[in-house]
Amino acid sequence: MLYPKSNLYRTVTSLNGLWHFSVVADDYLPHAPLQDYRLTAVPASMNEIVTDTETKNHVGKIVYECVFSVPHISKSEYRLRLGAVSHKCEVYLNGVKIGAGINGYLPIDLPLECLLEKNRLSVVIDNRLTNETFPPGRLEGRKQIINHDFYNYTGIHRDVLVYSRPKQHIEDIEIQTVVDGDYRKIKINAKTTCEKISYQILDKSGEPVITSENSEIMIPNPALWSPESPYLYTLIAQTECDQYEERFGIRKVEVDGNRFLLNDKPVYFKGFGMHEDFFILGKGNSSAVNIRNFELLKWIHANSIRTSHYPYSEEIMNLADEYGIMVIEEVPAVGMNWWEENFGANGANENTLKLHKELITQLYERDKNHPSVIMLSVANEAATNEALGETYFKEVIAHARELWPLPITIVEFYKSDETLVSKYVDVICINRYFGWYYDHGDLSVICEQMKEELCRWHDRYQKPIILTEYGADTVEGLHSLPAESFSEEFQKEYFEQCGEAFDAFDFCIGEHPWAFADFKTKQGLTRVRGNRKGIFTKDRQPKSGAFYLRDRWKKR
Ligand code: BDP
User: Fold this and answer.
1) How far is it, in rounded angstroms, from Cα 251 to Cα 260?
2) For residue 337, how far is its CA from the centre of ligand 1 (angstroms)?
């Protein structure tokens, strides 16, 4: 799946901006233009824009509508790309259904076949989460029960683009890089309806490196991609009537014993689990917020992130390539933790399993050419301790391995002797909250408990371990000497204790404190205006712990 780009053969028109929207009944069909509407913005969540609780918390259907026109271009076809719509949607062009979206975090790309002079685009969104959605949820009438710790934002969260491409076009490009000893090659797998295709590779400064008609190209002495040197090449694929430019990097990823190797060198992961979340925008993509996030990642000397708990926008993936931030990609399988309650005694049904696999496929289709992607997480804190969970995830992981030529992981909540799934993965990823959810406020137990935990996992699996979550809610400006929970001093000392434990073992290959920044979640007794475990506040200012991590990671 190629991202819409404009060039001599292709055009892109953005439909971002002001749209009409309305809450609608379950049987609503957009046969006629909306009469009774309110204004909303795309991309954004509607929840942080409206001022009435009823709309903000609406569970059910909502329609978004806009009108657009595009010039006629002979020998070209038009398509529509919605970057992400939360959660499910049906798409109508001039009242006629043209497609549907199955998930809130991956693009919907549809042909626009019957365009008129003026076109009415309607997106009927359903924000309900059930045991057949990702993430899953449960409904008690109109009440939405969610099993995950982030706000259930509703809206069109990423760009809406109408694009043209030639009728005879390049459909897709997959670039595999092969690095073995002194041997470096790229393999291009291009899908095209044109007869002939040729390739040119440009270096970082835009200078041509090589031209070829072969789909296997040797690049003499290539620069490799790494966080220290995120070198990107550009591939220009050219046919007689189409052209497409794709950036790529050359790198080798491998797990060897206790080590995670990038270009044959051991990696220590420093970074965060995050959320797409900002004031007013909700989950709406914003270039300014994205760049601020990456500037902060570099400032604190991070080299990696996990896209907890769902795929992030394409723009974020491009920035990760460019800034040199390794990405553990995660599909939106979060909250799959109570099988009885969510899925009934027989576990997840066939539709759930099918969709889980489909999302892994779609994510691969979207992100396969990003050098920053170095591992796939198939779920966060799932019921890996149950026999049904094992059967389910064994199949999910097998499916992931067929596609992704990368290490696979699952982020674990259960203990090393409880999980039945960690034996199937390459890297052990665990979330642990010693001194917070257990022995709350006791800084003295953290280091020992963390060390014991790391040893238990390593003794059992002999695999490298990343702490993908550990942290403490911290209210900025709250100080306490000696440190007490919720203060900035507590968060800092908490990280110090954890750091001491991680440094004791070379099989501990990384630390991702939770979370990059404070974020909105459902209201609850432990949540004062959201989850406050951020190392940065929601407006992206550092808490005291950030300075400690910056210092530590500079040396690590
Ligand atoms: C972990 C979840 C994460 C939560 C975190 C917390 O993976 O989504 O936000 O706990 O409680 O279990 O802060």
Assistant:
1) 13
2) 12
Residue 521 CA, closest ligand 1 atom number: 9
Task: Give, for ligand 1, the residue of 486, 531, 535 to mutate: max count of ligand atoms closer than 8 Å to Cβ.
Answer: 531
Q: Can you give the pLDDT at residue 304?
A: 99
Q: Quick: pLDDT tens for 304-329.
A: 999 999 999 999 999 999 999 999 99
Say which of 412, 469, 488, 511 is annotated catalytic.
469
- The yes-or-no verdict on residue 395 having pLDDT over 90 is yes
In angstroms, rounded to a whole number, what is the distance separating the alpha carbons of residues 534 and 513? 9
Query: What is the residue with the minimal CA distance to atom 6 of ligand 1?
Result: 149
pLDDT (0 to 100) of residue 339: 65
Give the closest residue to 187 by CA, choosing from 152, 226, 142, 217.
217
Determine contact, residues 323/230, Cβ cutoff 8 Å.
Answer: yes
CA distance 153 to 138: 16
Q: At what angle do helices 314-323 and 287-299 cross, to 10 degrees?
A: 30
Give pLDDT, residue 195.
83
For residues 282 and 154, give the distance between their C-alpha atoms in angstroms, rounded to a whole number. Answer: 9
Identify the three-state secondary structure at position 345: coil
pLDDT at 348 over 80: no
Q: How do beta strands 508-511 and 269-273 pair?
A: parallel
Cβ–ligand 1 distance for 511 under 6 Å, the answer: no
Mutate to test the pocket of ligand 1, among 152, 338, 429, 431 (most ligand atoms within 8 A of CB): 431
Catalytic residue among 246, 314, 381, 453: 381
Which of the 8 DSSP states describes residue 445? G
Q: Closest Cα to atom 2, ligand 1: which residue?
A: 149
Find all residues with CB under 8 Å of 104, minimum gap 6, and list them: 84, 85, 86, 87, 88, 157, 310, 332
Q: Are strands 155-156 and 265-266 parallel, antiparallel or unpaired?
A: unpaired
Question: What are the pLDDT digits (tens) for 120-146?
Answer: 999 999 999 998 999 999 899 889 999
Report how far residue 264's alpha carbon sits from residue 221's, in angstroms, rounded to the nearest whole number.
16
Ligand 1: which residue has its CA nearest to atom 10? Answer: 149
- Residue 132 annotated to the active site: no
Domains (range + CATH), the chain: 17-158 (2.60.120.260), 170-248 (2.60.40.10), 255-555 (3.20.20.80)
Report whether residue 431 contacts ligand 1, using a CB cutoff of 6 Å: yes
In which band, very low, low, confident or very high, does the pLDDT at 170 lie, cut at 50, 70 and 90?
A: very high
Reply yes or no on whether 381 is catalytic.
yes
For ligand 1, atom 9, which residue shows the shortest CA distance?
149
Q: Tokens in use for 122?
A: 């309607």
The predicted model scores a pTM of 0.97
CA atoms within 13 A on the CB side of 83: 26
* Any atom of ligand 1 within 6 Å of the Cβ of 531: yes
